[in-house]
Amino acid sequence: MDLYDLGTIKRILAAHGFTFSKALGQNFLINPDVCPNMAEQLNADRDTAVIEIGPGIGVLTKELCKRAGKVLAVELDKRLLPVLAETLAEFDNLEIINADVMKLDLNRLIEEKFSGFRSVKVCANLPYYITSPVIMNLLESRLNIDEIVVMVQKEAGERLCAQVGTRNAGAVTAAVNYYADSEILFNVGRECFMPSPKVDSVVIRLKIRKESKYTVCDEKLFFTVIKCAFSRRRKTALNSISGTMGVDKNVLTNIFDELEIDRNIRAENLTMDDFVRITEKLSEV
Ligand code: SAM
Prior knowledge:
Blueprint: H1 6-15, E1 28-29, H2 34-42, E2 48-53, H3 59-67, E3 70-75, H4 81-87, E4 94-98, H5 106-113, E5 119-125, H6 131-140, E6 147-153, H7 154-160, H8 171-179, E7 180-188, E8 193-194, E9 201-208, H9 219-231, H10 237-245, H11 249-258, H12 272-283
Parallel strand pairs: 2-3, 2-5, 3-4, 5-6
Antiparallel strand pairs: 1-8, 6-9, 7-9
Helix pairs in contact: 2-3, 6-8, 8-9, 9-10, 9-12, 10-11
This protein binds S-adenosylmethionine (SAM).
S-adenosylmethionine (SAM) binds at residues 24-29, 53-56, 59-60, 74-77, 80, 100-102, 125, 127, 130.
């Protein structure tokens, strides 16, 4: 079955009475090159288990099933289950779970479903309304996974993969950088989807570090400092942190001076090392 053929897609969806939900970020891929390319970039073999988020009608799922040992696809929209049963009937290494990925205990699922696999990876054309929460959830849960290859909105991808300390960086950039090495793999134009969204996309790779690159005394405080520093982008990091964290401005000014960090620096120009050192000093206050 050619899942990229518009006539085939329309026939299957009509047969199941399916209509697209904008709220669930349902823009399905119709370009035949994108999914094979994503699956190749994931580099999954029969010893690899893959979690896919949001299989839709199964275009990417199919490419993953062809290559990986096992695929677990999590789809929130139960109307798509009978569609997937039809489009992916040929695969016996696939399990579909009808659930909200944000509410699943992925650690438990990995333990239960993937024992014996050498490697676990995540691959998805993510629903855009929850891109950052899903990625942060995957990283913060410290899942036993090796890498994440996902499609996201171009602007989100550029922020996720930016270098900390540069203009494109945000709180999420620093958070991603804490756990993973990131890179943009390739661009995907809006014309590759049905219905076509208003923005272009990119496919990114996050390679999870097994050992942390940074020594942080208090992780919770570290992420609070980052979030607060970026919360008022037009202000200096010093004003932003002291205002949102409720830290006395004089105390924070002394910390910046002691660390030889410019009092007027903005959050986007702080490095990971700066965030680590500010956190350390704040933990002593
Ligand atoms: N993988 C398909 C493709 O590339 O054509 C569909 C991608 S579409 C951008 C996003 C998919 O995620 C939809 O199938 C949507 O129903 C599903 N989805 C949305 N929110 C979800 C959630 N919270 N948990 C799991 N799946 C979700």
